[in-house]
Amino acid sequence: EAGVVQSPRYKIIEKKQPVAFWCNPISGHNTLYWYRQNLGQGPELLIRYENEEAVDDSQLPKDRFSAERLKGVDSTLKIQPAELGDSAVYLCASETGGAGANVLTFGAGSRLTVL
Amino acid sequence: SQQGEEDPQALSIQEGENATMNCSYKTSINNLQWYRQNSGRGLVHLILIRSNEREKHSGRLRVTLDTSKKSSSLLITASRAADTASYFCATDAAQKLVFGQGTRLTINP
């Protein structure tokens, strides 16, 4: 099994440019998360999907960030326009969902550098 | 926002010694989890302890939970060089997993 796959692994852009990250979760995992991890910090939740529905996007900066999960499988996180403070690692995670403990499987992350 | 606070922020020990990391949190939880992150990688789940449990073991890992003090500890026994990583506690409440800031563990050969 491939695990949670993210791309690109690294992205360097200039401020005000757009950027997009892609995530393919583990097959059968209905719940998908996007986290942002700043250097030396723990991950912070941006958005959680149950199938194709965004059930928690309270911490997603909606003025510049958007996300989608078409057909309840792959997901894309977009930033437009990017700002210097957006430099971070963007982590995607998935789990089976439903009742019970939320044990997450993470991808390797997409490291964004905004110049 | 991050609920968990971890202590110490960094820990450096000799190979073979035991490593203890602590996590404190603020609100009631369903369970508490510990994850490991190697440099440049995603997080990997290590162990989960439910709110009605006090201690749990998995291999060289021992986790304790004190809900009255809202704190947990992770003990790694007989440390190895491969244990060098950042360790994060994560509290599960209201279907939301909130991570602490992590402890950076370095095992010196």
Note down, in words, how this protein is organized:
- The complex is a heterodimer of chains A (about 120) and B (about 110).
- Chain A has about 120 residues and is mainly beta.
- The mean pLDDT of chain A is about 95.
- In chain A, the strands form 2 sheets. In chain A, strands 2, 4, 5, 6, 9, 10 and 11 form a 7-stranded mixed β-sheet that branches. Chain A has a 4-stranded antiparallel β-sheet with strand order 1-3-8-7, with no helix packed on it.
- Chain A starts with a strand and ends with a strand.
- Chain A has strands at about 5, 10-15, 20-25, 30-35, 45-50, 55, 65-70, 75-80, 90-95, 105, 110-115.
- Chain B is mostly beta strands.
- Chain B contains no helices and 11 strands.
- In chain B, strands 2, 4, 5, 9, 10 and 11 form a 6-stranded mixed β-sheet that branches.
- The radius of gyration of chain B is 13 Å and the shape is globular.
- The mean pLDDT of chain B is about 95.
- The chains are: A mainly beta (about 120), B mainly beta (about 110).
- The interface between A and B is medium-sized, with 22 and 26 residues.
| Assembly state (oligomeric) | heterodimer
Give the percentage of residues in beta strands of chain B: over 45%
**Arithmetic mean pLDDT of chain A:** 93
Mean pLDDT of chain B: 93
Count the helices of chain A. How many? 0
Order of helices and strands of chain B: EEEEEEEEEEE
Main traits of this protein?
heterodimer, A: about 120 residues, mainly beta, 7-stranded mixed sheet, 4-stranded antiparallel sheet, 11 strands, about 50% strand, globular, B: about 110 residues, about 0% helix
